[in-house]
Structures are given as C-alpha cells and as structure tokens.
Amino acid sequence: MVRGISLVTALAALLAGAVNTSAAAEVNIYSARKEALIKPLLDRFTKDTDIAANLVTGSADALLKRLEMEGMNSPADIVITVDAGRLHRAKASNLLQPVRSDAVTGAVPEQYRDPENYWFGLSFRARPVMYAKERVGASELSTYEALADEKWKDRICIRSSNNIYNQSLVASMILANGVEAAETWARGLVQNMARPPQGGDRDQIKATAAGECDLAIANSYYLGRMLNNENDPGQRKAARQIAIHWPNQKGRGAHVNVSGIGVTRSAQNYDEAIRLIEFLVSDYAQAYYARSNYEYPVKENVHWSETLEQWGTFRADTVNLSLLGENNAAAVKLMDRAGWK
Amino acid sequence: MTASRVIAAPKAWFSARPFRVHPWSALVVSITGILSIPVLVVFGFVLYPSGVTWDHLVETVLADYVLNSLSLMLGVAGGTLSIGVITAWLVTQFSFPGRRIFIWLLLLPLAMPAYIIAYTYTGILDYAGPVQTVLRDAFGWGLDDYWFPRIRSLGGAMVMLSLVLYPYVYLIARSAFLEQSPSLTDASRLLGTGPLRRFFKISLPMARPAIIAGLSLALMETLADFGTVQYFGVPVFTTGIFRVWFGLGDSTAAAQLSALLMTFVFVLIVLERWSRRRARYHHVGLRSRPIQLTPLRGTKAVIAVTACLLPPMLGFLVPTLQLGYWAVLTAPEMIDTAFVKLAIHSFGLALAAAFIAVTIALIVSYGKRLARTPLPGLAARVAGMGYAVPGTVIAVGVMIPFAWMDRTLDAWLHDVFGVSTGLLLSGTLFTLLFAYTVRFLAVSLQTLEAGLSKITTHTDDAARSLGYKPMEILTRIHIPCINGALLTAILIVFVDVLKELPATLILRPFNFNTLAVRTYELASDERLADASMSAIAIVLVGILPILVLSRAIGRSRAIIH
Q1: Which residue in the set A14, A162, A212 is minimally distant from B127, CB to CB?
Q2: A202 in contact with B at a CB cutoff of 8 Å?
Q3: CATH at B481
Q4: CA distance B128 to chain A (A)
Q5: Do A332 and B247 touch (CB under 8 A)?
Q6: Does A210 touch chain B (CB under 8 A)?
Q7: How far apart are CA A194 and CA B275, in angstroms?
Q8: pLDDT band at residue B285, thresholds of 50, 70 and 90?
Q9: I need a labelling partner for B121 at 20 to 30 A (CA). Which of A25, A43, A220, A251 fits?
Q10: Which of A69 and B561 is assigned the larger pLDDT?
Q11: How confident is the model at residue B42 (pLDDT cuts 50, 70, 90)?
Q12: CB contact under 8 A, A11 and B143
C-alpha cells in the first residue's frame, strides 16, 4: 500500500507538471467546437501573437454550467459554441460581455452576430436536403415544408430530435409558420421517415447512398468531408451519389446556423480575447473553415474551397439567430408531441 | 468445512458500551458523507419547482423513458448473467483446450468502451455497411427483399452493452467460484449429483451475493450509459436527461430526472437486500486444496470452447480488428507527441483514481462491518449511487459544492485580508479525482464487500479475543484474505476511469486531454476512422493491467491457503 501511495504521489506530480502552462500573455477558452477543428487555428494564433491559448472542450451546456458555477472567478475568457442558441442563452444568463472591436464588427455581417455585439458567428453551417441522384430528380424538390408531402412516405432519413441541428431547424419552422403548422409538418415528416431516427448526419447520407432512403436532411459539411475523405474510398463513392438541394430558395432560404464566439463577463484577459476573435475573423482563419471543414466563412469575399464552390451559392435564411435559441425549447416539445424520436 | 447461511449475530462485540460512538463508524459516516454530497446536491433539485417541463414529460415521453430503460436493464441483465456466470463456471470447474487463455481472454471486453463497440458494429452491420452490401450484391436483393436485424435499436443496445459489461459478472463470479470450497462439490459428487445439478444447487446459490454484486455494477453502468443509446436513437432516462437539460434548457428538471433515476436504483438495491434478508454467506473454515477440474472431451469440450470464445471474440476481437484496420489507415496523421501525452494522462489518472477509490472503499467496507449499525451502510449506499448517474450530472453535483467553497473562501479572504485566492479547487485535477471517486465508489465497494462478506465475523471475534486491534485485523487478516477482491476492485476502477468520459470532459483543467476525450471528440464528430487510433490505445492501455491483475487474482487463491 505504501508503494501504491508513493506511486500516486509521483503520478500526481507528473500530471501537475503536464498541465502547468507558463506564458506571459494567455487567453483561456471554453470550446464546444471540437479540439481537432479549433486547435490548428489556435496554434497559428499563438505563433503569430505569442499569446498562449489554453483550451477546454466539451458540450456547450456543460461548459456554460461550469462558467456559471465558477462565477466571476472563472478563468475562462472566451466561449466558443457550435450554435447561436447557446450563445444567446449565455448572454441571457449574464455570462457574456460586449465585444468592442471595429475589426470584428466590420468583418461579421449583421445577421450572424448579436445586435448588441455580445457574440459573433465565425462560420455558418447549412442544413440542406440531400438526395440520391439516381432515384430523385432535382425538380421534385422545393421546400422543407414539402417534405411532409405523402409522396415522400418511407423515403426520408434524418437523425434524432435530440440533435441541436434538428432542434434549430424546427425552431426556424416555428418562426416561419407558427407552432401549429410546424407541428403538423413534423408529424408529416415523421410519417415519411424511412426508419426510426438513428445515427449521425453522415449516417443519413450513407443510408441514402445505399438506398435505404431517397432523401436525407444533413449539414452540408458532412457531405464535404465524405467527398474529400482520403482514407475511405467507400465514403467518397457514397458521397458522389448524393446531390444537394437548397430548399426554400424562392422564400426565406435554406436553414443555417453558426459556430460562434463570445467574451465572458469574468474575462481576466479581455485584450487577448479580443485579439483572438480578431484573428478568427481574419481572412486566413475564415478561409481555414471552408478549407478544413467545408463550413461557410461568415466574412464576405473570403475564398471558398473547391467543394463549396461546386455546391454553388444559395439564399440562406436571414432570421435572427438569437430567435432560434429562444424557440429551441418549444421546438423540442413540439418534436416530442409529434413522435419524432 | 461448510458454507452456510449464518444468521447475523444481533450483539456485536462493542454493544456492551452502547453510548460510545464507534470511531470506525464515525470515520465511515464522515467519508461517505462527503462523498454523498454530489448525489445529495442532485437530489436537492427535487425541492425546486419545475412544473411545466414535468407536465410536458409526463404527457409525452416519460413512459417511453421508463419502459425503455427497464427493458434495456432486463436485456442486459439476461445477457451479462448468462455470459458471465456460464463462462466463469466453465473456466473454474472444467478443463478443456485453451482454458488458461480463456481465463484472461474473457476479461478483455472490459477495456472496450460501450460507445466504441456500438460505433464499430454499426459500421460493420448497418444497411450501408459491408456485410449487408455484400449480401445484397451477392444475391441481387433490394431493400425489401430480405430481413436483417437493425443494429441501431433497443435490441442492438442490449447486445452491445451485454458484450462489454459481462466481464463485471464474470470477474466477480469467477473469484467467487474459486473461493468456494471444493469439498462441497466433492461431497455432492460422491452422492452422485451431476455437474448441472451441482451448479444450480451448490455453486450458484453460494456465489449469489458476488454475482448480484457484479450484475448490479453492469446494470448501473447500463443506466448511466449515454453514448450507445444516443447513437442508436433509443430514448431512455439518460438521453431524456440531456434532452431536458440541453434541449429544453431546464437543468432543474434534468437533475430531477436524475434523482428519479437514482430512486429507481435505490429501490433495486433495497429489493435485492431484502430478498437476501438477514442471511449472510460465509465460508466457515478454510480450504486446504485446489479445485479438482473435471476434464471435458468431445462435443462437450467443443461446446465449452465455443461458449468461452464467442463473448471475447464479439466483444473484443472483432471490434479491435476493425479499429486496427482503421488505425493503420490513419496512424500517420493521428500519432504525434500530443498522443503520447494523452496516454500518460489517461494512465496516470486511472491509476491514481483506482488507488484512491479502493483505499476509501476498504476503509468504508471494513468500518461498516465493524459498526454493524445501519447508518454507515446507508451512507455508503447513498454515496455509491453515483455510479448509476450519467457522469455529466454527477460532474455538476461535484462542481456546485466545490465552486461554492471556492467562492466562499475567496469572499472571506477578500473581506478579512483583502486578498483574492480565485478558484482553488474548481477546474483542478483534485476535483476530477473527487468526481471519479464518487462515481466509482460503488464499483470498489461492491467488490470489496463481496470479498469481505466471505470472511465470517467469527474470525474477527476470535482475533479480537486474541487481543488484535481493529486496524491489525484489517491489515493482518482481512487484506491478505481479500487480496483477490482488492486487485479486482483496482482493476475495474482503473479500466472504468480509463474509459470515463463525461465527468472528465466537463471538469478537466485547461489543455488536459485524455484518450477517451480524444476518441469521443472524433467519434462524435463522425470521424470514426480518425478516432480509432485513440480507441485502440484505450484498449491497449487497459489490457496491460488486466493481464497483470488477472494473473495476480488467479494466484491470490493460493495466498489464502
């Protein structure tokens, strides 16, 4: 047992050493964006500015809870999420403070940021309809609303309503058509599902390619990753059988959400935090989103990757993204009632 | 030499001095009291009003959650019991080709996180996966021309969880079978009883407390599982908790759902205790020689080999091969210096947590035994319930009191001395290790209690009468006797922490990642191939102690003699 205790002590020392970071200037980040998708940019930021970027990743709600618990003593300066709703919630819970930077407000169009500059979108993500080219003609598709039509019975694949992307989509339907119409739509969609909701977005695309369904609703960057997957020829092949339809082009536009950023109210490194945001809206970082993860840069006139160019431009829903957050709970309840698992 | 149900002696040795608070009892109550705080914090949310969300839940999905959780538990109970008990019995009672290898091979699925096996099998067996595609191409079938079980379903979740959780039952049942006195089975053999009858009449009833202990671990883990059910789209309590918290933004109602889940577990535990009533399972006397293995030949040997081969093959070899194939494809991108650091973090945390949890469990289980009053036992039960609660919820239960302490201390120091300490505990490894201890106390406690329960209290009484102090009885009699159980507990906590994700994710310090975190991040981002390298590393880091300890547990039988 004594040996055990000394072992534990040695390990504790080792672990403590491992987390000890020392740099003059630093910025501390709570990120719901996965490490693999943010770390390369942070490394570049540190290289350019000599400001160390310390990172904890996790689910947005859990990180916001941690931030809330830690209160004004929280070490976190920055919060990064993968949807606007969470940022809106953080602002409403008084966890954020406004960002005062002309460079940032100049770079991010109004529809992708908080009216009072509490948070900013960094990249936007579209959730279009994808279809199997062999079995569906582009002319058969029009709007999200039309997906509840009986002709799609047993032909649509979509993931569980636990997923934030679906919750946002339904929130946008509520905003566009009202709760009642959105619920009727959701019931129709459930009727048209080819299988009980399961798996992730990529699984819906694969199932569509394999013929289990004819349509999938999924975020476009998943298709982008599949098309460019160097390690898995099977995924590339599946993705090439799929085409994207941008819905509601004659109306409000395709549903989009952002991955975004905000500065915490307790930030002890406010200046460094602002510099990080300014870096993340720079042309370099914005192009990186398109290049590495097939998301759309929020900044205009930034180079899109080849894959994004191929999908073409489209009209995106310009609804204020804060409203999606406000309607998230209503959307979840609506899906519960509609039997969307 | 007999094993018997001994009715607990109502008078303990200290009852002559009823007014003194027993020091061990006080120690146990204070330790478990502190460890109960997170669970009590979660329970505390029951006091908050959250009417609207509850009305909605009751109207729509609550019945589904309860029904699916119950079915999942039943299915996993059936799966883990049949696999775990049968294989444990086979390797301890019979000799057949490969038996020595199966002894440890059967443990390996322990190193496989449930959500990883779920992802892997989906990749293989899904409609779009290679198996069904080959079938379709070979026979020219279309979508509706054939039937294939849906992997992503309630049934699929039962199979996946059973495949990785049966080692809990196997491990504990095996040491229970090993510790059973062979003279009983010898006697029944002399009386002409067949092996099946011996199993049901003697071995199984005697091993019951141990088997139940293993089963309850598997079931609590089932209730706490999130990754598998989430991916399979099966609505159960855990997915409901996160839906209410993240989707509806109602963390109070989420905590209340967790409290309901814990009540569920508590009732189960009480039922089990009640069914055992006051019977205790002791060996009276010690064994003098090893178990005589019955050789199996021909068909019987083939059946035994198949029964022992299938679980580790499906629960470990197949998914590991698939992961290995992916890992080879992605290794150049995924292995870097950061990766080595991940492995060190994971290994160090798991080892530290295992020692802490088992030391505390040893103190608690021994103190409970000495005290023989209900309070320490109850406190230990409450503290142990953390195992059945999703890690994220427990993490919040840990965060709240720690943050409160930090804030209070900071405010006090600020007022009195004008200095600010900031956060002393929140966001440190201390908090994380505390959370692990809370979450995995049940594992170590169940295992040690199962071990201790086999030492009759008469032994303690005898030692007392020879002038041994309680501490001496623990170190000189109990610890040597339950060596196997101790190692088993260390092993299970180690592997559990290695796989642990939600609490690590939310409580860890800056720039501190583990293999499980890396695996989950990539897998949940649907980059399974990229995740495979760290998944394989979890499995490999986990195998090493499994092999070492499995040998030690085997040897520990000899130590008793």
Answers
A1: A212
A2: yes
A3: 1.10.3720.10
A4: 5
A5: yes
A6: yes
A7: 46
A8: very low
A9: A220
A10: A69
A11: confident
A12: no
Distance in Å, alpha carbon of B44 to nearest chain A alpha carbon:
16
Is residue B361 assigned to a domain?
yes
Residue B368 has pLDDT above 60, yes or no: yes
What 8-state DSSP symbol labels residue A258?
A: E
B185 domain residue, yes or no: no
pLDDT at A241 over 70: yes
Whether A18 sits inside 8 A of B143 (CB atoms) is no
pLDDT in tens, B297-317: 889 999 999 999 999 999 999
Q: Supply A87's token pair.
A: 């940022």
Q: Give dist(CA A46, CA A27) in Å, integer.
A: 10
Band of pLDDT at residue A79, cut at 50, 70 and 90: very high
Q: What are the chain A neighbours of B422 within 8 Å (beta carbons)?
A: 73, 75
CB contact under 8 A, A63 and B509: no
Nearest-CA neighbor of A101 among A81, A83, A119?
A: A119
Domains in chain A with CATH codes: 25-125+257-311 (3.40.190.10), 126-254+319-338 (3.40.190.10)
The residues with which A57 forms a beta bridge, in sequence order, are: A31
In this prediction, residue B4 carries a pLDDT of: 43
- Chain A contact for B525 (CB, 8 A cutoff): yes
Per DSSP, A341 falls in state: -
Mean pLDDT, chain B, rounded, equals 82
User: Residue holding tokens 């590495």?
Assistant: A292
- Tell me which residue of B200, B317, B205, B240 sits closest to B72, measured CA to CA: B240
B49, burial (CB in 10 Å: exposed 0-12, middle 13-18, buried 19+):
exposed
The pLDDT assigned to B201 comes to 80
| Chain B residues lying within 8 Å of A159, measured CB to CB | 233
What phi-psi label fits residue B289: left (phi over 0), alpha (psi between -120 and 50 degrees) or beta?
A: beta
- Indicate yes or no: CB of A36 within 8 angstroms of CB of B530: yes
CA dihedral for A317, A59, B394, B536, sign (positive or negative): positive
What six digits make up the tokens of B461?
Answer: 């009484």
CB contact under 8 A, A69 and B505: no
Mutant choice from A59, A78, A227 vs B, greatest count of B C-beta within 10 A: A59
Which residues of B fall within a CB distance of 8 Å from A10? none
Question: Chain A: residue nearest B243 by CA?
Answer: A162
Confidence of residue B547 (pLDDT cuts 50, 70, 90): confident
Number of structural domains, chain B? Answer: 1
- B242 vs A: CB within 8 A: yes
pLDDT for the residue numbered A266: 93
Does any domain span residue B496?
yes
B chain contacts of residue A78, beta-carbon cutoff 8 Å: none
Q: How far is CA A224 from CA A97, A214, A227, A242, A306, in A?
A: 35, 19, 5, 11, 10
Name the percent of chain A lying above pLDDT 70. 93
The whole-number pLDDT of residue A11 equals: 53
Measuring CA to CA, which residue among A341, A157, A54, A260 is closest to residue B229?
A341
Q: How many CA atoms lie within 13 A of A185 on its CB side?
A: 19
Sheet of A242-245: strands edge to edge? A156-157, A215-217, A129-132, A242-245
pLDDT higher than threshold 80 for residue A2: no
pLDDT of residue A189: 96
A326 touches chain B (CB under 8 A): no
Q: Which two tokens stand for residue B475?
A: 């170190």
pLDDT value for A54: 95
Q: Are B377 and A47 in contact (CB under 8 A)?
A: no
Lowest-confidence segment of A21-25, A41-45, A255-259, B181-185 by average pLDDT: A21-25
Residue B457 belongs to a domain: yes
Q: How far is A152 from chain B (nearest CA, A)?
A: 16
Q: Which domain holds residue B419?
A: 335-561
Partner A, chain B 184-213, Cβ-Cβ below 8 Å: none
- Compare CB distances from A199 to B61, B231, B246 and report the shortest one's residue: B231
